[in-house]
Amino acid sequence: MYLELENVSFSYDEVPVLTDISCGISRGEITGLVGANGAGKTTIIYNIVKKVQPQKGEIKIAGENIRFLCGNKFPVTYVPDTPLYYEELTVIEHLHFVKALYPQSDVSIEALVEKLDLQKHLYKVPAMLSKGTLQKLMIAISLLRQYEIFIADEPFNGLDPRQISIFKSILSEIRQQNKAILISTHLLDMAENICDKYIFLHGGKVLATGTKQELTEKHGLPGNSSLEDIYLSLVD
């Protein structure tokens, strides 16, 4: 595993949210972090991106504790579940600002603008953008830094079918670059469509991990079971 969580626990105001989470993701794969709203998916991501720190356990990247990885040595980029932006900067100003922070990145702003179909919105401030376009801006920003791990928290919120198709093609490109991808979602059909492996989360605990075939075989389910069938069987 390239990214590993080892017995990670976390509480908010002494209320347990994550309990002894052990799981990981590998390079060249899309891993789905799957669970209902409130299962703890976002809290796991907050711990990985160092927005909060585990109260127990460790998180490692290539065997090194992330506490000791800072700045450009911390190889994680992140699409948050709630957009983060500067209210007074236009779309193009956001992109140039982030690009200036990561000059080593070889990603072209022009290529991103074209790929994400942002040409018509370059001189708009975030308040003028639709939810889907704002989400595309967050995706563009996340791609402008150097990274080896791409994380997206409920990235399909607000995206229309065309935008989802574009995002799926971006994920495919990242996977082909042998980078690790973690996608958090409660949309089981979407996860089944794009992910190679899954981490099922329920009540702040890991229910199961593996490919769809591994999950059906391990839990004695029919081979034609959908991801929804597997998840509901485990929860029940």
Topology:
Layout (H helix, E strand, L loop, with lengths): L2 E10 L2 E11 L4 E5 L6 H8 L7 E6 L2 E2 L10 E4 L11 H11 L7 H7 L15 H13 L5 E5 L7 H16 L3 E6 L2 H7 L2 E6 L2 E6 L1 H7 L8 H9 L1
Parallel strand pairs: 3-8, 3-9, 6-7, 7-8
Antiparallel strand pairs: 1-2, 1-4, 4-5, 9-10
Describe this structure in words.
Helix content is 33%, strand content 26%. It has helices spanning 41-48, 91-101, 109-115, 131-143, 161-176, 188-194, 212-218, 227-235; strands spanning 3-12, 15-25, 30-34, 56-61, 64-65, 76-79, 149-153, 180-185, 197-202, 205-210.
The whole-number mean of residue pLDDT values reads 95
Q: Strands of the biggest beta sheet: in what spatial order?
A: 6-7-8-3-9-10
Q: Give the SSE order as H and E letters.
A: EEEHEEEHHHEHEHEEHH
Contiguous runs where pLDDT drops below 50 for at least 5 residues:
none
Radius of gyration: 18 Å
| DSSP strand tally | 10
Ends distance: 29 Å
Quickly give the structural class: alpha/beta
Largest sheet: 6 strands, mixed
What is the approximate shape? globular
Share of helical residues: 25-40%
Strand content: 25-35%
Q: How many helices?
A: 8
Which terms summarize this structure?
single chain, 236 residues, alpha/beta, six-stranded mixed beta sheet, four-stranded antiparallel beta sheet, 8 helices, 10 strands, 33% helix, globular
What is the compact description of this entry?
This protein is of the alpha/beta class.
